Predict the structure.
Amino acid sequence: MIQQFNTDTDALINRARINESKAKHDLEEWIIRLLPPLRGLQVLDLGSGTGKQVFRLAPLVSDEGLILGIDLSQDAVRAVNQRAESEKTQWVKAQQMSLDDCLHRLAGKHFDLIISSYAIYYAQDPVALLKGLRSILTDRGVVFVCGPGDGTNREIYDTVNSFIHDASAQLKPVDDFLGPTQIREIGNMYSQFTISRLKNQILFDSANGVISWWKHHNSFISSVSDSVENNIRTHFETNNIFSLSKNVLGVRFNV
């Protein structure tokens, strides 16, 4: 379900900044290790945002290839195109379009690699979209998607739930963004698929950092905010770090 802070641009940027600066492992490095050699490829980034992945891939793809990022936000698209111009990476471009419309809009084009990091589940039907991407891949094409894995944010969910006495109102644990049945169904469109996992952590060194992250996340519940904040501050009276699980599921589909 897409909730408030999934579509709040400021909240997304704030969380991304915190996740990147305090993560134990570099997500982009992990993604790159799971991709085919990138030089000269035609690459499509679904849900490219302001270009975090795009500009990490750009020097690896080089001017022998092309990277097209698509995003629903016109501001994000503008940011990518302006940065590409200023950094003279003319092989990087972005267009505004929705995930649900991209197969129609991109019909007739073909890509060697399609990636989507923490975005594919914004589509109305991610399974249908992932199956449909086969139609715009080259004969050596690869799709790689990643997103939240089982147990993500467990520590903050447990903290919040400890103050919600009605079990039916408690936060539900985070599951894999794609279940095994869904992955197998998508995989039927491809020659093979590979599942990878990264057990990442966000390491907070202050109570204020944890609280700021929480207040920009869907696990935030105002009715228990005072109790949760006090609990977090108490944690730091005897601990230097608050570790938050950020488990990642990655799936690679090969033509």
Observations:
- The chain is about 40% helix and 25% strand.
